[in-house]
């Protein structure tokens, strides 16, 4: 070690680095296997520790060149500016390299490397940029080794030893990257699982409510369908009864029309007879007028006979008595004729009234006949419409059956969905 302080270069392999105190103290079998696979031994740590003494005054130059290369990447420059400064990072990496040259690999050494890896991961340094930067650091150290050690054999061994150590560190860092990535993935998975679980629970609750509402609606629809079916059957029976009543009413109206027709015929016949009777009454009136005229003449003749009998004296008494009797008979005949004339006048007035009534009756009969014909036509339309509706009821009943069947299928589908929801609630999201 003292020899190195006096010499700036090592020309030959005369220096014995076996005097350097180094140690490897690892309890993890896997890490021991890693060291074994890269063939990193205490002898290598002794060479690295010797290099630490040799390259101490060269580290600043290595680090400067290192950051000149690193700052070429806009992404790395942005990361550095966001989380630190170049001057601070130079001190950190200088300390980090000196710890590599310390010659000790133990739990603390491992912990510091893993901590650095976690920091790199946290600030968003991608593994590719870490590898590029680490390779530049390795290149810088190797360059200094070639400058400081002239002996080819020793130079080779030193480069091999520092490469082994740096490789082991890279393994630790990349493994830490992988662990952090895996942890982040697991955390994201847990978050996603929690979100999915919450979403499933929310959707399940919503679907549960929808299913519950759907079942209620389906039940109501089923009940309504059954009620509608019952109502349709009842309506069909009532419509069939109404159709029968309408048919019966139509028959009755036909009979009534026939009766009105007969009544009209009878009324016309009666009117003709009344006309004839009126003509007969006129003949009777003329005859009564003739009888009254004859009675007046007879009365006049009896009066003349009485006058002549009075002139005849005793000889005309018998004739006078006959003349009186004839006068009495003439007066009685005229009185009777007058009475009959009054009766005939009254009968004539009544006959005119009867004629008027018969005319009104005839008009009424004709009007009723027309109304009955319209009523018959309306009854016919009603019967046809009712019959058409009755004929359509089976089709409506068929549609109700289809609705009922669809409602059953809906109920089955809702039950299936409900079972699926319950199963979904109990499943573990993997």
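-> sequence recovered:
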């Amino acid at each position: 070690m003292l020899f190195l302080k006096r010499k700036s270069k090592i020309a030959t392999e005369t220096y014995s680095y076996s005097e350097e105190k180094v140690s490897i103290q690892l309890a993890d079998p896997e890490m021991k296997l890693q060291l074994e696979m890269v063939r990193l031994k205490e002898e290598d740590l002794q060479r690295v520790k010797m290099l630490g003494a040799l390259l101490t005054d060269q580290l600043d130059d290595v680090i400067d060149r290192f950051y000149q290369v690193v700052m070429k990447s806009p992404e790395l420059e942005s990361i550095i500016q966001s989380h630190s400064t170049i001057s601070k990072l130079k001190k950190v990496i200088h300390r980090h390299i000196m710890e590599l040259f310390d010659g000790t690999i133990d739990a603390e050494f491992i912990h510091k490397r893993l901590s650095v890896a976690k920091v790199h991961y946290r600030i968003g340094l991608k593994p590719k940029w870490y590898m590029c930067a680490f390779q530049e650091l390795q290149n810088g150290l190797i360059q200094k080794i070639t400058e400081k050690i002239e002996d080819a054999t020793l130079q080779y061994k030193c480069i091999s030893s520092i490469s082994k150590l740096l490789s082991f560190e890279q393994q630790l860092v990349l493994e830490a990257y992988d662990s952090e990535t895996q942890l982040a993935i697991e955390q994201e998975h847990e978050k996603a699982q929690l979100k999915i679980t919450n979403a499933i629970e929310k959707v399940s609750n919503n679907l549960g409510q929808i299913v519950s509402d759907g079942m209620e609606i389906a039940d109501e629809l089923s009940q309504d369908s059954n009620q509608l079916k019952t109502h349709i059957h009842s309506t069909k029976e009532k419509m069939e009864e109404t159709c029968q009543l309408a048919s019966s009413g139509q028959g009755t109206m036909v009979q009534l029309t026939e009766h009105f027709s007969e009544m009209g015929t009878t009324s016309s016949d009666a009117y003709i007879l009344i006309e004839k009777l009126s003509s007969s009454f006129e003949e009777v009136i003329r005859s009564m007028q003739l009888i009254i005229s004859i009675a007046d003449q007879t009365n006049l003749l009896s009066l003349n006979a009485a006058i002549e009998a009075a002139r005849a004296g005793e000889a005309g008494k018998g004739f006078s008595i006959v003349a009186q009797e004839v006068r009495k008979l003439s007066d009685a005949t005229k009185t009777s004729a007058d009475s009959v004339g009054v009766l005939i006048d009254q009968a004539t007035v009544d006959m005119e009234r009867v004629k008027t009534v018969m005319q009104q009756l005839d008009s009424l009969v004709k009007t009723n006949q027309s109304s009955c014909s319209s009523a018959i036509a309306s009854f016919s339309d009603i019967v046809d419409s009712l019959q058409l509706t009755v004929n359509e009821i089976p089709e409506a009943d068929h549609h109700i059956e289809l609705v009922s069947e669809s409602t059953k299928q809906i109920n089955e589908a809702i039950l299936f969905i409900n079972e699926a929801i319950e199963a979904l609630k109990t499943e573990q999201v993997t």
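Residues 152-312 form the longest helix (161 residues).
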